[in-house]
Known about the structure:
six-stranded mixed sheet, about 35% helix
Amino acid sequence: MKMRTEALTKIYDSRTGSSEKIIGAQDVNITLEKGEIIGLFGYSGSGKSTLGQMLSGLLKPTSGKIFYDETEISYPFRGNARKNIQVLFQHPEVSFNPALPLIKSMVEPYRLYGLEYSEEILIDSIERFGLHKEHLLRKPSELSGGELQRAALSRILTLEPDVIILDEPTSMLDVISQGQIINMLREYRDHRGASYVFISHNRTLCEMVCDRIYHVEHGMVTAE
Ligand SMILES: Nc1ncnc2c1ncn2[C@@H]1O[C@H](COP(=O)(O)OP(=O)(O)OP(=O)(O)O)[C@@H](O)[C@H]1O
Ligand SMILES: [Mg+2]
């Protein structure tokens, strides 16, 4: 098993300072096999992103456990887990520094993880995603949503993750760009044997993409 959770729970404090608590996730037990795509389906506010952020190491759980390759990992993730578990968001602009040309952000994973880098290597990797050198010289706001999402995908795949958390990565895109991203993800999974957690409020899309779907409601998760 690639990843699993045990009674994973997130309780947010209310900003009003009252003792009222907001349940983000409650006692969530999910499993993710190698090469599997699981869906987290649920309506707005049900707790999908809360779960996705805990699974990607961006949010500290209130209680419960996360296991990766049968080893318990905790916030903030380190080492292997940090490199191998990546996340793609609904709004790709959050992954990039808005003030800088794209190339600055695209170089980061190479530098952070000491990977072999040259401009040629970078250009080669973005060309597989239908992007070109010229795109790299623009600021994030000067690319289309689909282009930026492909750049974000190219950037995380540089690290060759084996788990990708996809938090509504195509919900801002038109059907063609959505299809492109999903095909790229399928290709990568077939090549790497990677596992995905696919978060969506679109049931048809979930059924199309996922091997198995969990239903999220009021922070609680049930297998479908
Ligand atoms: N930082 C926070 N502080 C307080 N409450 C939060 C915080 N983040 C999320 N919540 C609350 O937790 C619940 C779950 O939110 P979450 O973002 O996980 O839902 P979601 O299923 O991803 O919704 P959407 O489909 O709209 O993205 C909601 O009631 C939300 O208001
Ligand atoms: Mg969300």
